[in-house]
Amino acid sequence: MQLRSVSELLTQNIILPEIEIKGWVRTFRANRFIALNDGSTINNIQCVLDFENFDEALLKRVTTGAAIHIKGELVESQGKGQKVEIQVNYLEILGDSDPETYPIQPKKHSFEFLRENAHLRTRTNTFSAVMRLRSALSFAIHKYFNENGFYYMHSPIITGSDAEGAGEMFKVSCLDAKNPPLNDEGNVDYSKDFFGKETNLTVSGQLEAETYAMSLGKVYTFGPTFRAENSNTSRHLAEFWMIEPEVAFMDLAGNMDLAEDFLKYVISYILENNPEDLEFLNNRLLDEEKTKPQAERSDLSLIEKLNFITENNFKRVSYTEAIDILRNSKPNKKKKFKYLINEWGCDLQSEHERFLVEKHFKCPVILFDYPANIKAFYMRLNEDGKTVRAMDILFPGIGEIVGGAQREERLDILKEKMAAINIPEEDLWWYLDLRKFGTAVHSGFGLGFERLVMFATGMSNIRDVIPFPRTPQNAQF
Ligand code: 4AD
Ligand code: MG
């Protein structure tokens, strides 16, 4: 007999006389109804058994969390709530689950509790739905780039360069443990710890992706990146996944078009392919909204928010225009931002970004042409000599979801910018080579994958959209 999945069986319209299924028990009611889930869908399949046909000792072992093997007949359901159910004629316990100690009880658990049980939290409806959507979004991302002529490039995890020039890197600790490099005093020299060289975990694959764009034309990376910033917010991780397309002969306007088209595509993909998981999360959020005071409730449901993205143009606004708007705005009852916008040139805080998106424009915003001094060294300097061709995409409820730029393609200006922040030319000689041999306009961006998953699932904490979150407090598992 062929093993079936719950999702496959639930869509059957016909009676199937001999089916076989394996999964985990969600609940067992009245010694008769097993709600079984195998992770293939948010829905459980009801398995009905006639307890007189089974050994009492066996039935006692049908507890929440136990892995079981069932054979039987798929029939039209007699009860409400499901179209089909399984009439069980064979039951085997594959793995017991002690009801006294199994952490995932059939009741509502707090997300904090489930974070401490991250190894089991995907046994719950919410986390299984989130992680199926995470998987679907990854697939949609590869599909988009594949359909649009991009090559997938694997950028290195261990690097000698700081792609963002911000110094937020984790050092790679002594790999050559048997032969550690020693300093003059004979102690381990942790500054030269990768076989005699200083290396870090990558903060971004962009610089390496640029080398591939300048030969293969259109490329993207999709891998883990690391930031040693001590940020304890609901939007920052020390280890997160980033998607970084990089395209030769494309300017900033093309970069904005690409990012908008790409985001619309991946969101449309899940709307079309994952309706059950989205509906479940949509309802979860509607229930949560009901507990809030009217004034704090969201105007749109999760699914409406996702549709809104796919149906509306993103608003493109320059940094200078945004500063004017913010200076003339009264954001709240106190009519003031916590961080005041004092002068042109200051960095925007998340309260400003969210005000622009959620209150002022009420749609996703692409901010561009930022002051050079608040952005990374590799961004293309504009003719005004003070702004760079940077772009950040801001999403409602999230803030910055994408950061990108047209890259500085002129050797002399790039060298000046590196010198200004003390990046030695020797460190990036290969990056400078791209500007010596066949340089050209090129652009790209980085999408924080977890921020996209947060938006797509309506989860409010980034720790709940990655399997095993790494934050300053948490690196267990
Ligand atoms: O704005 P960032 O730092 O840009 C870069 O790294 C560029 N090299 C990208 C490029 O042009 N190829 O990061 C890009 C995105 C941010 O917009 C945000 O969504 C996400 O990565 N991000 C984080 N996500 C989770 N935790 C963190 N600590 C993050 N830092 C950035
Ligand atoms: Mg950024």
UniProtKB/TrEMBL annotation:
PANTHER family in the cross-refs: ASPARAGINE--TRNA LIGASE, MITOCHONDRIAL-RELATED (PTHR22594:SF34), ASPARTYL/LYSYL-TRNA SYNTHETASE (PTHR22594)
Name recorded for this polypeptide: Asparagine--tRNA ligase
Lineage of origin: Bacteria, Pseudomonadati, Bacteroidota, Flavobacteriia, Flavobacteriales
Family: Belongs to the class-II aminoacyl-tRNA synthetase family.
The EC number(s) this enzyme carries: 6.1.1.22
Pfam families documented for this protein: tRNA-synt_2, tRNA_anti-codon
Native species: Thalassobellus suaedae
Record GO terms (molecular function): asparagine-tRNA ligase activity
Primary gene name: asnS
TM spans (from-to): none
Keywords of the record: Aminoacyl-tRNA synthetase, ATP-binding, Cytoplasm, Ligase, Nucleotide-binding, Protein biosynthesis
Domain Aminoacyl-transfer RNA synthetases class-II family profile: 131-467
